[in-house]
Write a structure and sequence with these properties.
Layout: E1 2-6, H1 18-27, E2 31-38, E3 44-46, H2 53-56, H3 91-97, E4 103-108, H4 114-127, E5 135-139, H5 142-150, E6 156-161, H6 167-175, E7 180-184, H7 190-198, E8 202-206, H8 211-220, E9 224-227, H9 230-236
Parallel strand pairs: 1-2, 1-9, 2-4, 4-5, 5-6, 6-7, 7-8, 8-9
Antiparallel strand pairs: 2-3
């Protein structure tokens, strides 16, 4: 089972930041999950929310910004012990730090239209060139999967599941040409893990911060454990 840092290592470093990605690089972890959104100038940025309020403390909508307007937002403001400003990273900056990772889960956030999905995935494929063996593009959004499926993308994909769809999730993942399912921890029952494995789909489970639960999932044979506390998990697994 692979330990995968969630949004970098959001329990141990500011989430989705270059400093956070460097932190897990320095830990010796070589697997990470992070979120991607596309700005109005088509730049791809690494950020979970579409608003700066939670991570940067400023009431501003991400999609109002171009890539030139990201500098004022410091995603380490709530981390008193973090001695560095952490601006919103571009995807290309992030990839430079994690260039030697074995496994990268790139979560594409939901978009409004199929046209948005086409534009985003076109830029994403260009920037991920060279990462075909290590990157898995994940999303809850069928529009993203369809866009990549229709263009016969070289990248592996994973369906993210947070509603209790049970077996429908597996059907949908197979229909969309996915190779894995990212199960929300609460939905990753023994039965659903077994059925996913029988369908020959890989399994990542998110977000797992309890050591006993992590050991249980390891024993059930999941592929990836997405955690906010990768250093802690390394010490106990």
């Amino acid at each position: 089972m692979r330990i995968i840092g969630h949004r970098g290592a959001r329990g141990e470093a500011p989430e989705n930041t270059l400093g956070g990605f460097q932190y897990i690089q320095d830990l010796g972890i070589r697997a990470v999950e992070f979120d991607v959104r596309q700005l109005k100038d088509r730049a791809l940025v690494v950020m979970h929310d579409d608003q700066f309020i939670r991570t940067a403390g400023q009431d501003k909508h991400l999609y109002e910004c171009s890539s030139e307007e990201l500098e004022p937002y410091n995603h380490a403001v709530t981390w008193s012990e973090w001695n560095k400003v952490e601006p919103t990273p571009l995807l290309e900056q992030t990839l430079k730090i994690i260039h030697n990772f074995d496994h990268i889960e790139v979560e594409v956030k939901t978009v409004k239209t199929q046209d948005d999905a086409e534009k985003l995935t076109e830029s994403l494929e260009q920037q991920l060139k060279g990462f075909e063996k290590t990157a898995v593009i994940t999303s809850f959004d069928p529009k993203i999967h369809l866009a990549l499926q229709q263009k016969k993308s070289d990248f592996k994909r994973g369906l993210l599941v947070e509603t209790d769809m049970k077996f429908k999730a597996i059907e949908q993942a197979l229909e969309l040409g996915c190779v894995q399912i990212g199960w929300m921890n609460q939905l990753a029952s023994h039965e659903m893990i077994q059925v996913t494995q029988q369908a020959k789909l890989g399994i990542s489970v998110w977000t797992v911060n309890d050591i006993d639960r992590a050991k249980q999932l390891r024993d059930l044979g999941i592929n990836g454990l997405i955690t906010d506390f990768p250093k802690l998990m390394m010490q106990h697994l």
